[in-house]
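the two lines:
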Amino acid sequence: MIQLNSVNKTYADGHQVLKNLNLSINEGEITVLIGPSGCGKTTTMKLINRLITPSSGTISIRNNNIAQMDAIKLRRTIGYVIQNIGLFPHMTIAQNVAVVPRLLKWEKAAIEARVDELLNMVGLDPTIYRDRYPSELSGGQQQRVGVIRALAANPMVILMDEPFSALDPISREQLQDELVRLQQEIKTTIVFVTHDMDEAIKIADTIVIMKDGEIVQSGTPEQILRHPANDFVKSFIGAKRMQSMAAEPMVDDVIVENPAIIHPSRGLAYALKLMEKRKVDSLLVVDNNNQLLGRVSIYQILDYLKQETKLVSDVMMPIKHSVSVGTSLSAALNVMNEHQLPNLPVIRNQREFIGLITRGSVISLITDLYAVDATGGESHAVH
Amino acid sequence: MPFTNSISQFYQFLLERYPDILVATREHVTIAIVAVLLSTLVAVPVGIYLAKNRAKWLHSTVFSIANLFQTIPSLALLAILLPIVGIGTKPAIIALFLYALLPILRNTLAGFQSVDQSVIEAARGMGYSAAQRLFKIQLPLAFPYIMSGLRMTTVYIISWTTLAALIGAGGLGQLIVSGIGVNRKELIFAGAIAAILLTLLTDQLLGLIERKMFKRAKSA
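prediction for all of em together
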């Protein structure tokens, strides 16, 4: 959605803060720019709302080159949250939240409704807070207002420059949680700058690690934790976090080899026979291209068994729950627990079938782990 | 009782001469207000410009000029102006205008510098134009400072206006100067008391306006 193409930024004193930067930011995701101070992360973010102009290179949002837009109009379509909150002290909370809608000349009633909606969204009762002044709010509340002020006019992008780093740890955690929740509700593209790796891992869909004006690595938090590109990334993540990641098993570790699967063009009698043979009560339906199509259980087979022309593809049920390869085992177990599933298919790229995890396979892995712990490294577990 | 006697004499005097006192007061107020207004019109924009432009040489130049006017003794300044612009109201207004520049300028600049940079950055990032930032954010936030500068300046310009009589500008100082000339205590007292009352009244009035206007403005 946002594209930065070979962007350079050199200041008048000759210091080059960005070196041939190429970055693409996905729509509807939280992209976190992270790195040590002076790495160019904030500069990169401010390029997007043209608070900083690049020395060379182009930046486009939804394929429109922003250099050709009116900077002030552009900024009104981009939410902006800063570390020092920057609420206007002479305006009430409602007036602060309504700033951009007013600049865009919305109708009065629409603005008021929007303000109340947003205040409710972050748990600030409009009847209490609407007419208060920023100085009457706590730091955490002020930054909540800062965040909804950025959301007010339904911007296409929201830029957040270390928004929570000045807050106390408890407020920070709360606001991070709220941001993730809000993001799931509104699905806006968010570019978030931080120097705190815990924060990045917690909220990011994509993490972009920068150093000395260049991108060192970008990827999902999982990818970066599992496959740090170099020593810099490793040191930035921190040895402790890497260890804890290494100790946590993934679904890949517990996949059942050779699960019971069936081709969609098979008949029902064959399916029943296969279930008998494999001693299972359901089969996964996988086609020749290894695409996972659905699931049939013994009940569906028995319901339709008398209709000889029915095929597996006619009676199968869609897959409601599945996990991608690389998901942590605890996340997968949560899904299984929550929906009371005996097993869970593992897929790659939306539908490509990889395998199955079952309660049995999970238990054997856990037995393994505990046996290793108990005997100091040797495994005596029965497989 | 000589004291009650002189009070009743003074009262008698007031009854006879109050039209003159009113005229003098009007002249006095006019000179002071015109001087402060002109000074505001110059000093506030210059202060705003200085707040934007942080060049050191510019600040030091502007402030040394304003300081210079401030440090010239008032009587000396009036004397210098006499041969240039003649006698009357004009040199008085010019002199007081020059005196008022510095405090208004200083307070305007202080007001603008007191505005939190992050507030301005937030405004810029959200799409306020430069003019909108100035009128909707910076000026309202700097206003309490500017206003208190204006109040202070107005008060002492009013008291200095009494000196304007020396160059024939009239005002309440004229009563005092004439009173000294003809050795009439009532005249001296009438001028002095009216000038004091006028100063106190103006201070109260501007203070009231200041509080009324900025009851809502609170700093974060």
